[in-house]
Structure formats: C-alpha cells, structure tokens
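Researcher: Re-running this chain for the archive, since the previous output was lost when a drive failed. Same request as before.
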Amino acid sequence: MPPQLRKKPSAAQCLKPAEPGHGMVYLVHPGALPADVHRGGIAAAMSGGLGLTVLDLGALPEYWEAALTGGRAETTLEDLADRLRGHLENAHEDGPVVLAGWSFGGVVAHAMVELLDPALRPERLVLLDSIAPTEAYKQPDDALRPDLLLDWFAMYLGVKRGRAIPLDYDRLLGCDTESGLALVLEAAIAAGALPADTAPPGLRKLYTTYVDGLLRNNRLTDPYRPRPAVLPLTLISAERGLIPDDPTLGWEPLAAHGLSLRRCPGDHYTMLTRPDATAQIADVLNPAPAGTRS
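Model: Regenerated structure tokens:
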C-alpha cells in the first residue's frame, strides 16, 4: 500500500478495555519505545477490571518528525497537551479515571490537567520516572553531557535489544561522543545485545536519532511555565532512573495537593517491561474502591 494511503495510527490506543463499572487509566507515552510495550507490561499486570488506554505522542507527526530533523519541533508542549485532551473529554467511562505519563509524557499529562474542564479531570495524576518541568530541572542543550546521554542510551539500547548492557559509568566520565560510543558498543557486544560485527556508524546513527528525541523534549519543555497541580501527584521512580539520586525529580514545588513517592525495580526503560516493576506500577494505578476515596 502506498505510504499516502496508509491509515494514520490513532493517538489513543486502548490496550485493555475496562470491564463494566471499572475505571480507565490514560497513559501519555512519548515514544522512544513503541506504545505497544505497555500491552505486555502494565496492561498485562492490571487486574480487577481496570482498563488501559495509551495516548501516544508518537502518533502525532509534529512531534515524532522532530526526532528526525535535529530535534526542533514545529509545535509546543501546550499544543500537544491540547491534542491529547480531547481523548479524555470524549471518553464516557463508568468508573474512575486516572491520568498517568511516562518520562516526558508525565510533563504533557501535567499540562493536560490544566486544560481539562474541572468536571472531567481525573482523580489523580501518576508520573512514571518523569522529570518535573520546573526551572531548577530545565537544562540547556549543552548541559546534556555525552557521558550522561551515553548512559541513558545504553539503557535504551538494552531494552530495545532485550539484553541489559552493564556499563561502567566511571569509564564514560570525560568521554567525547565517539570514544563513549566505542565503550557502549564494546559493552553491548559483550552482553550479547549486538552482534560482534556491528559497525560503529550504524550505532552512531541510532544514537543521533535518540539524542535528537531528547533534545526535542528538552526544547519543548524549556518555554513551558507549569502551574502547581490541581490534583494529588504520585511519582514512581525507577531504581536506575534518569536522576537516580533525586527521589522527587523536582515535583515538590508543583505538588500543591500532595506528592506520594514510590520506587520500582529497573531502569528508566525496563520499568515498563520487568514483571516486578509493572506489578508495582499497576498496583499504584488501580483506583481506590469507591468507599475509600476522599
């Protein structure tokens, strides 16, 4: 089928229908991994009739194309939130609604809440290893050092290839991109994540696209001026997250109605695939019984 005739994927993908009388979780997903990763992860871990719908930013061309063109998006964070808002406003759930977001998706989910009619707002917002869009946590592009980016890239590559890539971060310190990629390639081959004949230029191309996606999110966040959340916040951070030494990831100033902190196994990416991690996430996402909600 010619590309122009292919059906465009919907931004809203229901991976697990809610049973009658039960609620729905709407999870904002920012790409990097395919949205279907949640089918065998969080959706599979859910029980009790709760449903899961993924709101996939990767289905919005103005968002995903920026990762292929140097990381400069022809849109704004508020516009992306507005595009996804309609899926909640047009839903007709007969149970409680929970909004969640993984990584940059948590920032977009936070912006969505402000745009929703108060009568249609979810009961709470769950953030999955998402860094707050506050001034203290915004970084200029040149602050994203090669050693930091390469460490994140190794996590990403490992989950894409289904093999953890143990990487000695101390060896990355002070590396430039090329020497750091050589260390990642060495570790990936040793872990069986890449074949021994993998050519460095191929890995460099994948890394460039990965970094452009991060730069896109960074640039979308920079001009955004968030307000304190009008809902309670729950942050689930990964044991090896993007900022592993900071349990709040900067959300305290935005948590006017409380911030609950949880920790789950895995890294920023494997938290979506490890059964022990997805079980913990599903437990947090499950709304409290009607008689116990305040």
